[in-house]
Amino acid sequence: MMRKPQTLPWLLTALSVVLLSLPWLVPHTGALALVAFVPLLCADALADQYKLRARWLFPAAAFVAWNAATTFWVCNATVGGGLFAIFGNSVQMMLVWLLFRLARRKLPGVLPYIFLAAMWIAWERRYFDVQISWPWLTLGGAFAQSTRTVQWYEYTGMLGGSLWVWLSNLGIYGLLVAVSGGHWQRWNDLARGCAAVGIVLVLAGPVVASKFIYSAYEERSEGTVDVVVGQPNFDPYQKFESMSQAAQTQVLLEEFEKALAARRPGPLLLLAPETFTGDIFLDRAESSPTMERIRGFLAEHPGAEMLLGATTYDLYATRSAPTILARPFGDGWIVSHNSAVMTNAHDPAEVYHKSKLVVGTELTPYPKIFVPLDNWLAKKMGASGLMGRCVGQDGVSLLHFGPERIPLGCAVCYESVYGEYCTEYVRKGAKAMTIITNDAWWGNTPGYRQHLSYARLRAIELRRDIARCGNTGISCFIDQRGEVLDQTEWWTRGTLSGVVHLSGEQTAFVRHGDVVGRVCTLLFLLLSAILLVRLFVPGKRG
After folding, report:
1. What are the two backbone dihedrals, phi and then psi, of residue 280, each rounded to the nearest 5 degrees?
2. Taking a C-beta distance cutoff of 8 angstroms, is the pair 406, 502 a contact?
């Protein structure tokens, strides 16, 4: 009697974990994602063939290990949040896989595998829009550090990369099944040739197309903006707990002063990081101590304007809360925002409120359920609240620079992960992009490098120059092909000077949005309907 292969499925599962994880951890390894699911599919098939017990353990272990290996760093900021991200994301991936296993029992031929790819991409697309959203491991993001292979994201967006991953993995797996099952030998020469050519085209075609696009692309420029990025390098735990705002402002302005000392007066954008200050009440923004010092500094440097991150507040002198997310404040209520503020020496400030908020630290999801729970827990623990209650604005708005009022987009931290969301800046007229962030919560881990790499994908999708400012790094300038032109070091204080080119052109992805995600969602729904029929409508009996 043949022994069941107990070890081989686990080895194949471990191989998939390695292949899935490396693109997020090691630069220029994105191609590994093109074969990463093949070992897991083989392990799953072996488990079925030999009727191994608890077959669900193989994909479950793979997804937990993949999430843990690539996003463990979230635990540096919040252990509970990190564990929730790892296991919550893994559970969703596992549900997709279990539905695929169900489809494999009920649908014929290659339909279950088409169902798997369409369902996974449909889930990724939906994950961008739900309130508890953590799309960090979207498969198309595997190429964020291999951007010269995905220049066609300007047409498809990041989910085009997810589709490439699945087409490649399923094509290679299908070829392995054909060879091992004897089908390859029964095919005629034409069929074998078509299969081989098809695999080569799936693997190499996008790379060749990307190389061509990269080589032929010419930087669009309708003018330029001079930018100085300030990286104050504050330990976030010191920044928010023991360092006064006046001292922080002094550090930042001293760094900017050094950078401006040798420059002639003229239009200049100074870029400061996310949540740089927390003393701005929106009904009297210019009177905040930080804004007064900044505006005084800008008055000494004609033509200079500053875009900075701030925690801002709206006050309401009402008996009832204006929103369920408001907190009591004196005799009224206070509502907080994570904002980007554009100011000069004289005019009223422009403000944009971050919309894509981080669950837990900024956002209380499904507030009608979780706010009462948060209030109850906070009262039991003697705290003012355990979850963040920032309020974002509906959709994006632009900030404007200089006497010509040049429209700029500003993605605040986490927002730069959302490709289709960022297209809204360009649709509304943004001619260049900025990103402000504070990645130091995670320490010197892969987290801040991954976050930077996603900005490179946004540059390709939008074909916009990006000036990126991080509190502790990495601050940088990214061109329209996703190349990092200049950058600071991690955990250093200083400034970075550069130029961003302005462009009014729109890519296909900006104009049409996430076509790949929409098509895959429709395909998933159609195949789901077929699956439901197979499950609940009895077939004919002979």
Report:
1. -105, 115
2. yes
385 contacts 375 by C-beta, under 8 angstroms: yes
* Secondary structure (DSSP) of 254-280: HHHHHHHTTSPSS-EEEE--TT-EEEE
Q: pLDDT tens for residues 320-371?
A: 999 999 999 999 999 999 999 999 999 999 999 999 999 988 999 999 999 9
Enumerate the β-bridge partners of residue 260. none
Cα–Cα dist 67/136, whole Å: 10
Mean pLDDT confidence for 113-120: 98
Report the run of H or E that residue 525 belongs to, with start and end: helix 515-536
Structural domain spans, the chain: 7-218+515-536, 224-357+392-504
Helix (H), strand (E) at residue 304? strand 304-316
Q: CATH topology for 224-357+392-504?
A: Nitrilase/N-carbamoyl-D-aminoacid amidohydrolase (3.60.110)
How far out from the chain centre does Cα 186 lie? Answer: 46
Query: Tokens representing 400?
Result: 């404007």
Whether 170 contacts 113, CB under 8 Å: yes
DSSP three-state, residue 352: strand
Helix axes 111-127, 79-106, angle to 10 degrees: 150
Read off the amino acid at residue 417.
V
* Side-chain half-sphere CA neighbours of 442 within 13 A: 23
For tokens 């697309």, the residue is 125
Q: Which residues contact residue 538 at a Cβ distance below 8 angstroms, ignoring those fewer than 6 apart?
A: none
Task: Indicate the range of 177-186, 327-336, 518-527 predicted with least confidence.
Answer: 177-186
Single-letter code of the amino acid located at 240: F
Q: What does the angle CA 371 – CA 373 – CA 375 come to, to the nearest 5 degrees?
A: 70
pLDDT at 1: 44
> Can you tell me whether residue 476 is helix, strand or coil?
strand
The tokens for 7 are 């070890």
